[in-house]
Amino acid sequence: MVNYYYDGTFDGLLTSVYESYYGIEPPDKILRCKNLQQSILDKDIDIVTDSEKASKVYEAIHKKISYDALRNVYHAYLSELDEIDTYIYQYLRFGFKKGKSVDLYLTSEEVLKVHSAAKKVRTESHLMLGLLRFRKLNGGLYYAPYSPVYNITALISDHFVRRLSDQFWIIHDTKRNLAAVYNMVECVLTDLPEELQHQSLNTDDCFEDLWKKYFDSICIKDRINPKLQKRNMPARYWKYLVEKQ
Amino acid sequence: MELQKKLEILSAAAKYDVSCSSSGSNRKNTKGGLGNATSCGICHSWADDGRCISLLKILFSNYCVYDCAYCVNRSSNDVPRAAFTPQEVADLTINFYRRNYIEGLFLSSAVTKNANHTMELLYESIRLLREEYKFNGYIHVKAIPGADLALIEATGKLVDRMSVNIELPSEKGLKLLAPQKEKQAILKPMNFISSKIAEKKDEIKVFKKAPLFVPGGQSTQLIVGATKDHDMNILKLSENLYKKYNLKRVYYSAYVPVSKNPLLPDLKTPPLLREHRLYQADWLLRFYGFSADELLDERNPDFDPQLDPKANWAVNNISLFPVEVNRADYEMLLRVPGIGVRSAKKIIMARKVKSLCFEDLKKLGVVLKRARFFITCKGKYFFNYNMEQLLIRQNLINGWETDEKKQEWEQISILSLIPEKPTLQDKLMSITGEI
Questions:
Q1: Count: domains in chain B
Q2: What is the average pLDDT across B309-338?
Q3: Domain check: are B153 and B13 in the same one?
Q4: CB pairs < 8 Å spanning A and B
Q5: B45 near A215, Cβ under 8 Å?
Q6: Which chain B positions have a beta carbon within 8 Å of A128's beta carbon?
Q7: CA distance B315 to B337
Q8: Nearest-CA residue of chain A relative to B102?
Q9: Torsion angle of C-alpha atoms B31, B34, B40, B41, degrees rounded to 10
Q10: With contact defined as beta carbons under 8 Å apart, do B301 and B231 qualify?
Q11: What share of chain A is helix, strand, coil (3-state, %, to 5)?
């Protein structure tokens, strides 16, 4: 088995695809980090990320397959699911063969895997547009900690740039320590410095209390249905919801 | 009165209005402004009753001059009363919005003093939000029946969605439970709004920057179970509303018993299943190409509680089935139980490159548990038995697997052919002839 290892960036993944065509040997698997258990039958190749090669692949996907395929690949990449990199690779191989009709092969394994991973990412990012909660800190900064299952910070930040364009805010993925910081001019993705990571959130914000009161009084008591509530709003997201504290 | 107390009273008073969606409008943010609308709509939370919270849903005031029997805010009801000021409404909206709690505002009101006065108050709150606070988020407002049309038009220019609630599906019900209201008064603003929306649509074709008028369309609400109306009456009414007034949505609200009145049915729990069936049928009208006449008729004026409307239709029209998945057109695929809009589209796509078998359908998200009775794949029928109406019906209700376990027909053994010895009772019966 030939394994490619890349650094976990999207460019790295695209470089791996490039190498699979022009390098020494096409891989059986593409992986993000080294397996601790190595088999003597495996041949490991480290891929050095090269932005030029990556952009060639990027352009090729756009032109030879479709823009949708590019979107699917990027979203599937953000899912960080097991083996997804290998499936993306197979999807692209298949795609370069079939052209833009690749997304019609809804029943073939490699297409199905990439589509379902991409869909999971899109579903969660849409849900998060609603479930993200900004806490107003004493300095007037709006700070939104959350821990999504998939790496969606880059996907959702644009929405808030458009929407909350006249306030300073930070969206902080506490699981990956990745933050989108907005200063009313531009939004940057970065990791938060240590001292900012442990914000004391005990602000006495009266609107948080008002929101909790509203949340309770809008419910019709004759129709209580916790199962439906949990189906729509999985409990794993409750940790950062003001109304569920 | 404290703001918190007001919010509690006036949100509790608004909760029986089920409309919550924030879709249909894609109002852009302005320079230096706050907020925008997303055309697909966004839910921000789900209350303990499982219903989504998308908008800050409040009444401006619950001091009402009307005394409608079904309504919690009727003037004769002994509930705490309160009224916001436009400033308070704006403050709440803006601050909730900045924390991403809500998608916008849903503002309704009880009729205080008279319709015009109420509509003016609503207009003023929304004007304040849009003009002073430069708020571009979603706003849904109620048009108060009886208010001046000029006032309704001015409000319509500022909001994303407007609605007039019909509440009671028939004029008879209206006379009985809300004698102060008239059907014509309710339909008049609806008619006005829909004609204005159509007008604006034409205008936008010519001038791209023509000012908006209710870009999210209008909606209404019908109460289910407070009157004796059949499902058929309700569904036909909705069908008409969709056709005639081009409504975006009709909401159905299971009647929650809020008062003891001899004119009202004595319900222990709200008729949630009935509400659910109506929503299913409503979807069939809007997205599946069904008409109300196909789903219900004079002989069956109510939905079957055991079977969803689409499956019920399919069983009653079994002669149209089975359909071949690889050849059927989109409209027919949509009519197969277990195939929805999404999976029908996927089938159309996938069969362009490959003829589909049952395994493939599972991957496309078809619910084979229901669909298998009605389809063939490459000419093969999946269900092992005859296409018999009753058998399929039973299987749809109980599920095939469970049925197999408690099989009703047993293996015939030689012993079962020997008749049982007649009991004493049998002998007596044979003498007296009484069964």
A1: 2
A2: 93
A3: yes
A4: 155
A5: yes
A6: none
A7: 10
A8: A130
A9: -170
A10: yes
A11: 55, 15, 35
Task: Provide the pLDDT confidence category of residue B55 given band limits of 50, 70 and 90.
Answer: very high
Element (H, E) at B392: helix B389-398
B178 and B33 assigned to the same domain: yes
Do the domain assignments include residue B241? Answer: no
Work out the angle between the directed axes of helices B309-316 and B272-287 (0-180°, nearest 10).
Answer: 70
The answer on B206 and B327 residing in a single domain is: no
Establish if B301 belongs to a structural domain. Answer: no
- The reply to whether B245 falls in a domain is no
What pLDDT, on the 0 to 100 scale, is given for residue B259? 76
Interval B361-381 mean pLDDT: 90
Which of B34, B42, B272 is nearest residue A130 as measured by Cβ atoms?
B42
CB–CB of B12 and A218 under 8 A? yes
Last residue of a domain, one of B181, B196, B218: B218
The CA distance from B92 to B55, in Å, is 12
Distance between CA atoms of B135 and B117, rounded to whole angstroms?
24
| Rounded CA separation B232/A143 (Å) | 51
Are B214 and B359 found together in one domain?
A: no
For residue B136, the one-letter residue type is N
**Within-domain flag for B26:** yes
pLDDT of residue A201: 65
Interface of A with B in 19-38 (CB under 8 A): none
Helix (H, G, I), strand (E, B) or coil at A135: strand
Instruction: Give chain A positions within 8 Å (CB) of B53.
Output: 215, 218
The answer, for A164 touching chain B at a CB cutoff of 8 Å, is yes
Residue B204: pLDDT band with limits 50, 70, 90: confident
Where are any strands of DSSP class E within B103-248?
Answer: 104-108, 138-142, 161-163, 218-224
Query: In CATH, what number is assigned to the domain containing residue B133?
Result: 3.20.20
The ipTM estimated for the assembled molecules is 0.92
CA distance B15 to chain A (A): 5
Is the bond preceding B257 in cis, omega lying within 30 degrees of 0? no
If you measure CA to CA, which chain A residue comes closest to B36?
A: A163
pLDDT confidence of residue B82: 95
Query: Using a CB-CB distance cutoff of 8 angstroms, which residues of chain A are in contact with residue B52?
Result: 232
Distance from CA of B346 to the nearest CA of A (A): 8
- Chain B contacts of A167, Cβ < 8 Å? 98
Percent of chain B with pLDDT over 70: 93
Domain's final residue, options B218, B253, B275: B218
Chain A: closest CA distance from residue B33 (Å): 7
Query: Is B98 in contact with A227 (Cβ distance < 8 A)?
Result: no
**Between the CA atoms of A132, B19, B331 and B321, what dihedral angle is there, to the nearest 10 degrees?**
100
Assess whether B212 and B325 both reside in one domain: no
CA dihedral B67, B71, B75, B78 (to 10 degrees): 140
Residue B91 sits in the same domain as residue B204: yes
- Chain B contact present for A135, CB below 8 A: yes
Place of tokens 């003009």: B131
The chain A residue lying nearest B97, using CA atoms, is A164
Its domain, for residue B394, covers 320-405
Q: How far is residue B54 from each of residues A132, A152, A235, B18, B394, measured CA to CA in Å?
A: 13, 22, 18, 11, 39
